[in-house]
Every structure is written in C-alpha cells, then in structure tokens.
Design a protein that fits this description.
With about 500 residues, the chain is mainly α. The chain folds into 2 domains: about 270 residues, no CATH class; about 120 residues, Serine Threonine Protein Phosphatase 5, Tetratricopeptide repeat. It has 25 helices and 3 strands. The chain has a 3-stranded mixed sheet with strand order 1-3-2, with helices on both faces. Strand 2 and strand 3 form a beta hairpin. Helix 15 runs antiparallel to helix 16, helix 17 packs antiparallel against helix 18 and helix 24 packs antiparallel against helix 25. The protein is globular, with a radius of gyration of 23 Å. It starts with 6 loop residues before the first helix and ends with a helix. This is Putative Zn-dependent protease. Its cofactor is Zn(2+). GO terms for molecular function: metal ion binding; metalloendopeptidase activity.
C-alpha cells in the first residue's frame, strides 16, 4: 500500500463495524441458536435509507483515497459472486454492495447499509472460489442479522456519521504533503475514539457464532462446499502464525480459537448442498482463478517481478491457462506487447468464450497502435455480451481518445443504458460526461460530471455542481427533476459532513 495510507487508515478500516480475518472463535455449545430479533429497537437507530447513505459516504471516501479498484471486470466478479449468496440468504430483498479494497491485508468487513468490503489480501489467501464465498457468506449474515446495529443499540445514532467523519479526516490528512499529516490522521482517530469503542461490542461471540451458522447455510444453499468455511478459517490461522500477525488491539478481546474450526466442520458434515445450476466464477469455467490472477497483478508494485513469477510457474505447469493469462497481463502492464499479444491470441483462439482473454487482447491492441482492431473486438464483444461495464468502459475510453464527435456520440449511446440503471461505477459517469462534452451536450455533461464527483466521495463539490446546473434556464422538465432529486439526496450528506468537526470534538 502507498505510504500515504499507512497505519492510520489501516487502523480505522479495522475498526469500521468489524473484520472477518480476526473475528472471535466462539467458545459456545454446539447447538444452533438464533439471537433474538431486536426489530424496530435496533432498526430505529437509523432508517434503511440513512444506512445506505452512510455506506455510500464510506464507499466514496475509500474511492477518494485511492483504496478501490478502478476495474469493472474485478467489480463484476465480486458483485456477481456476492449477489448469488444474497439470493440464497435470509433477506434477498435487502440492499447490498460488494467492493474490493486495494490492499494486501487479509481482511473483510461488513458496514451499515449492506456494504461489504473484501481486501485483495483475503482473495489472494483463498485457493478456491468456495473459500472466498465462505468469507462473503459470513459477512452477508452479519448484515441480514442486523449485527451492525445490535452492537450500537445503546449508543447514539451519531456514532455512524462520526465514524465516517473520522475516515474522511484521515483521507484528507493522508493525502496532505505536510509533515504533520500523520499527526492529523492520528488526531482524527483519537477525536472519535470514545464512540468507536462502542463498535467493539458489535461482534460478540454470539454474533460471530450466528454469522458462522447462517453463513454456512447460505454457502450450501448457493451450491458451494460448506467445508470451505472451516478451510478458510484454517488458512487464516496459519497465515497469522506464519507471519507473526497480531489482530488489531480493539479486536483482541476475542482470540482466534480452534473451536471455531471444529464447529464449522461439524456443521458442514450435516449440510445438504444444493447443486449449482450455473457457475458464477467457479472452477468449472475458471473465472475465479482468472479474477484472482488479475487481482494479484493489479495489487503488485512491480510487474517485472510477476513476469518472473509466472514464468517459473509455467515451467512447472506449461498447460496452466491461468498462469499464461497472468503472464500476458503482467507483460502488457510493462508494455512488452509482442509477447503479450502472442500469449493473449493463443488464449483467445483456444477459449473464444472466455471474456477475460478477449478483453486482454483488445486492451493490448488498443495500447499498441492497433486501435481499429481493438475497436472491432470491443464492438463484437458488446454484441455478444450487451451492456457489460467490463466491456463498455474500455470500449468508450478508446472511442473518446481522439475527441471525434461521432465516436463520442457512439460512446454516450453505449454507456447510457448503464447510467440509466443508476450504476455506482464512478468511472462510467466520468466517461459519459466526457462523451457529452465532445458531442456538445453541455447539460448532460454537467450532470454526469456532478454524479462522478459524488461517487468519488466529493459530495460537497457534487452538490455545488448540481446547484449550478439547476440555475440554467435551458434544462428540460425531466433533467430538472433529476437534478432536484440529486440535490435532495446530497443535501443531508453535505450537512452531516459540515457538522462533523464539532461533533467529533465533543466525542
């Protein structure tokens, strides 16, 4: 991780609502039980819309700090896997958002509003998709069982926005070039530590036991191996011992115990697995393995090191398509286009239906002076897989490269269906904003850029842009209604942000 986001940001991330890597091993009897439903008592702390608003602020702050991946292919995978688990969970109608943290810490967490973050290090620790699914299923259970509010029931609802305020303050401090930025970040932590102590009880042993039990039911119901839950706990335990890793101080009241692993295996023995009707990134189609290798490369500081890593692996197993993909991607990252093209072409010819291979070859063509060939590839892929952000983002980016009006109009038309679904892929709003600029639609461009600012965590800037747009006399009825709706949505967020310094100082 970049030194700007060093200990202070890591510390806060470990505090936000909880993390699976160092969760307590429940020393509880083997019988299953369910925590009592607190109903409106807990839910009265915040409405679902307030919780989603807090989650959006959290996600925007992560993105503003550069802690999220700007890669639709990665986003698509983790969201698809997560939503499959949600569909087989306790509350499939509840809002969820799955995202990846650009950091090799072995961790995952659930936050208010159904926001579930998984660190790159957690993905790289797993060895099969069932293990990653076990981690996500556990976090989904924390959300469906309302654990994020149970622990805070006796505390003020203000603790949620103050936690976000602490993160925002640390983000600002970490991005500062001042020598005092580290002190400012630590001060942001300490300013709200009194309220943050309440988060320690969010994940009691009983909550952890319940999340394990319900998570494994969700896992089996979605067609995954229930023994993967115990496997991933074992893997994390070994990782901690091998690397001498200690859990964050705030979580040390619950030491990792072998009881959790034993009980997970015992529960798995009695589970009936529902066969999967389709494979979502499973080993059957290799998407999990390709996702993991792509993540490995995009979190690595030196593609040159990974070129050697993949060459060594291919020497041991020349037939591994995953290592060939990894090598081709690593080579393309350091602009070694000839060998990367040869490898990617071979993969596409052998596996024409694997999207990751086709996208890699199109990307290499586009960056290696073969733009017409790349555009043709993207066009054909979009015909086969319409309205996929993983295809349309690089396709539109290439179309906009030279500022051609016709290409910009095409890019806008391609992106509009995704934008109309109110996607939270911030990059798409920036791209369609640029497309509208080039094609001469100033109002739509302004609207898209304002949305891009919001999804990138610049909420006050976004509100200012929308208010400026609202004053224009040439808006049509529908656009004016959309702009007003955005202002209404942003206003409480900005007011909360403006209140935070005084609130934090009182904490």
């Amino acid at each position: 991780m970049d030194s700007r986001y060093d200990r202070p940001v890591r510390t806060l991330l470990s505090l936000i609502i909880g993390s699976v890597a160092w969760l307590a091993a429940p020393s509880l009897p083997a019988q299953d039980f369910t925590l009592p439903d607190l109903g409106s008592s807990a839910e009265s702390l915040a409405t679902p819309e307030e919780l989603r608003r807090y989650g959006r602020q959290l996600l925007g702050s992560f993105r503003q700090a550069g802690l999220l991946f700007d890669d639709p292919l990665l986003d698509e995978y983790i969201e698809t896997l997560g939503y499959r688990l949600v569909a087989h969970g306790r509350r499939p109608d509840q809002h969820f958002k799955f995202f990846l943290i650009r950091d090799r810490t072995v961790n995952a967490f659930a936050a208010p509003g159904g926001y579930i973050g998984t660190y790159a290090g957690m993905v790289l620790l797993t060895e099969r998709e069932d293990e990653l699914a076990a981690v996500l299923a556990h976090e989904v259970a924390h959300i469906t069982q309302n654990h994020t509010l149970r622990g805070a029931e006796s505390a003020s609802k203000a603790s949620l926005p103050i936690m976000l305020g602490m993160l925002a303050a640390m983000v600002a401090a970490s991005q500062s070039s001042s020598s005092s930025s580290g002190d400012a970040a630590q001060a942001a932590i300490m300013g709200g530590m009194g309220l943050m102590q309440q988060a320690q009880i969010n994940y009691t042993r009983a909550n952890e036991y319940e999340a394990d039990r319900i998570g494994i039911q969700t896992l089996a119901g979605a067609g995954f191996d229930p023994f993967a839950q115990a496997d991933v706990w074992v893997r994390m335990s070994r990782f901690a011992r091998n690397y001498g890793v200690s859990p964050p101080e705030i979580l040390r009241t619950h030491p990792f115990e072998s009881t959790r692993i034993v009980e997970a295996k015992a529960r798995a023995e009695g589970m009936t697995v529902v066969p999967r009707q389709d494979t979502v990134g499973s080993g059957h189609d290799g998407r999990y393995e390709l996702f993991r290798e792509r993540l490995r490369i995009l979190t690595n500081g030196s593609s040159r090191d990974l070129v050697g890593y993949y060459r060594d692996r291919l020497d041991a197993d020349p037939d591994s398509i995953y290592d060939r993909y990894g090598l081709a991607l690593a080579l393309s990252q350091r602009d070694s286009f000839n060998e990367a093209t040869r490898l990617a072409t071979g993969l596409v010819e052998a596996h024409p239906d694997t999207l990751a291979f086709a996208l890699l070859l199109a990307d290499i063509d586009g960056r290696n002076g073969r733009e017409a060939q790349a555009l043709a590839r993207y066009r054909e892929l979009n015909t086969r897989h319409p309205d996929r952000a993983a295809i349309l983002a690089p396709y539109a980016e290439l179309l906009l490269k030279h500022g051609d009006v016709d290409d910009a109009t095409l890019a806008a038309n391609l992106l509009r269906p995704l934008i109309d679904r109110d996607t939270d892929h911030a990059k798409l709003y920036a791209l369609i904003g640029r497309a509208y600029e080039i094609s001469g639609d100033e109002n739509r461009a302004a609207e898209a850029h304002a949305l891009s600012a919001a999804y990138n965590g610049r909420f006050e800037d976004s509100l200012v842009q929308f208010e400026r747009l609202q004053r224009r006399s040439d808006l049509d009825y529908y656009q004016r209604a959309r702009v007003q709706a955005r202002i209404t949505e942003l206003m409480p967020i900005v007011l909360e942000i403006r209140r935070r310094p005084s609130s934090a100082s009182r904490g």
